[in-house]
Write a structure and sequence with these properties.
20% strand, 16 strands, globular, 12 helices, 28% helix, 2 domains, Rossmann fold
Length: 373
């Protein structure tokens, strides 16, 4: 089986997201290609995490058994954000679609399965249907399109082509309302790499209390301004936030550059508590199910501090209201005295996730609640 993944991530990047693990599992079924789009000179201005791979752009490279390609153009289409500018947005997207990378064209023609990750990828559905109508088409909703603020053109395209795809796979049932159809809709949650335990020692910390935050998604530096002042006895480790130290950070905040996924694991396992400092105005409820940092905290039995909206029914999570100092203090204090308890839920292995992506109708646990009779 030949698989093609179309996404705005790059398989070679340090930061590991669900698409990396899914591609690695797909490669066990046969040749797998990872096409990274929506990258241009504009991306470097926006501090795109793929900028470190810029010297590899527009070159096919085999990386850990996956064929990788970072498609860099002079500019790429973006969300123009104003209705009056939609005609310009449409022209940019049409030009992008009508002039595809020859590598993408070749990979589409050879694919048996094409996985479109939420974001810009669905705009290439018509191209796939025209070049390779026999290919199985799977949409993977890593995020809701409104949450990641995609362009109106992309939303309109997905609303049109979504019902024509073989499967719309949601990483949380809470995303269902954002889907253009329900008949081909399935729930396929994030998996978990249980081998992380093999790379989580030794501890990188000295004595004392240590709190860790990993990642940059919806990162709220204001949390650490409050927490570092109120808990001077705690050292707060901020890893890969995409931002430097803020003026309000205390001397007990240590800002680390982005690091390889495995390097972060000892920081998580041996921390006292984990922090998921998402911004309040933008935090979607489905992150309670899909946040990989929270899944890792759960696996290592780490009490976690996160916004109330995504604490869900997890007893190991302590919710706060972003921007509310009293609630931040209450949540951190609760986490610091909490015991380490086993995870409430056992996540799927990534191999089990890919089995469900490829044939979701064969698994009872992929059905939305209203689909279960």
């Amino acid at each position: 089986m030949r698989s093609l993944v179309i996404t705005a991530h790059d398989y070679r990047s340090r930061r590991k997201v669900n698409m990396h693990f899914i591609a690695a599992e797909l490669a066990k079924y046969g040749p797998t290609s990872f096409f990274s789009c929506q990258y241009s000179f504009l991306s470097q201005l926006k501090k795109d995490p793929r900028s470190s791979l810029d010297n590899l752009a527009n070159k096919v490279e085999m990386h850990e058994g996956i064929s990788c390609y970072l498609w860099k153009t002079a500019i790429h289409p973006i969300n123009m954000r104003k209705d009056a500018l939609y005609p310009v947005e449409k022209v940019l997207f049409k030009h992008y679609i009508d002039h595809p990378s020859p590598v993408l064209v070749e990979w589409i023609k050879n694919a048996d399965v094409v996985v479109f990750e939420s974001g810009i990828a669905p705009i290439f559905f018509d191209l796939v249907r025209r070049l390779n109508p026999r290919a199985r088409t799977i949409y993977l909703a890593s995020d809701d399109l409104n949450t990641i603020n995609v362009a109106s053109y992309v939303k309109g395209t997905f609303a049109r082509v979504g019902p024509e795809m073989d499967a719309l796979c949601l990483t949380s049932r809470l995303m269902a309302d954002g889907m253009p159809s329900r008949d081909n809709c399935y729930v396929v949650p994030h998996g978990f790499d249980y081998s992380v335990e093999d790379y989580a020692d030794p501890s990188p910390y000295g004595p004392g209390l240590h709190a860790v935050s990993v990642g940059s998604m919806l990162f709220d530096p204001g949390f650490f301004v409050v927490a570092s002042a109120m808990f001077p006895e705690v050292t707060f480790h901020v890893i890969g936030s995409g931002a430097g130290a803020e003026p309000g950070y205390g001397t007990n905040v240590v800002v680390h550059d982005e690091m390889p996924h495995r390097t972060t694991l000892p920081y998580i396992k041996h921390a006292t508590i984990g922090i998921a400092p998402y911004r309040a105005a933008e935090v979607p409820r489905y992150l309670s199910d899909t946040s990989m940092k929270l899944m890792q905290y759960d696996f290592f039995r780490l009490p976690a501090v996160c916004p109330e909206a995504i604490a869900g029914d997890y007893p190991s999570r302590f919710g706060y209201i972003p921007g509310d100092a009293d609630s931040i203090v209450h949540a951190v204090r609760g986490a610091l005295i909490a015991p380490r308890i086993p995870p409430k839920r056992t996540p799927l292995r990534w191999s089990e996730v890919v089995e469900r992506l490829l044939a979701p109708d064969k698994f009872a646990d992929t059905r939305l609640p209203e689909q279960v009779m």
